[in-house]
UniProtKB/TrEMBL annotation:
Protein known as: Uncharacterized protein
Family in the record: Belongs to the short-chain dehydrogenases/reductases (SDR) family.
Originating organism: Lithohypha guttulata
Cross-referenced Pfam families: adh_short
Superkingdom classification of source: Eukaryota
PANTHER family: CHAIN DEHYDROGENASE, PUTATIVE (AFU_ORTHOLOGUE AFUA_5G01530)-RELATED, SHORT-CHAIN DEHYDROGENASE/REDUCTASE
Amino acid sequence: MSEIENTGAHGTLSAIQLDVTDEASIRAAVRHVEVNHGKLDVLINNAGTGCRDPDLKTRLTQCLAVNAVGSALVAEAFRPLLLRNNNPYSIYVSSGAGSTHRNLNPSSGKFEFDEAYRVSKAAQNMIAVREHIEYGPQGLKVLVMSPGCVVSNIRGNSEDERNAWGAASDPDVAGNTILEILLGKRDSDLGKFVVKDGLYAW
């Protein structure tokens, strides 16, 4: 939190503990926001994990629990607070690894995790699409956003893993894409899979 505060950004910052795999934790976070703010302007569903366990069932269970089920539960829990707003956004941070179209290209997602990660992100994409269909008419602006390959410890904690062996970009690039969404510059892409320079096919 101190790192964010030291950027010189305006406004106030507070942190809430939230475990997307724990429904009690989700309910507590929703209650905190409701009591202190009364509504929610934006929900960015950005919790994500990969798994390198040799057992396929373990990999699928862990990735789906966070990336798909967790996203769905958080979206459902916070949605009533979003719908109190007159311009609410629900943004799912996904991955090109979850695009069926991109997965048909054998060279796609070179630095991403195995099939469990890809399956979980494809499932998350479907959750977002269904939210768009059901709640878009009520004014909820839903988008899926891929940050691309950015510096992150989702691949591991070594410097090479964090930087995807030199292929990862600065997370600020992805942050600017989210900012464009929140400024309404991507409203023509509601219900779609957006990236910095355009769209991904599902």
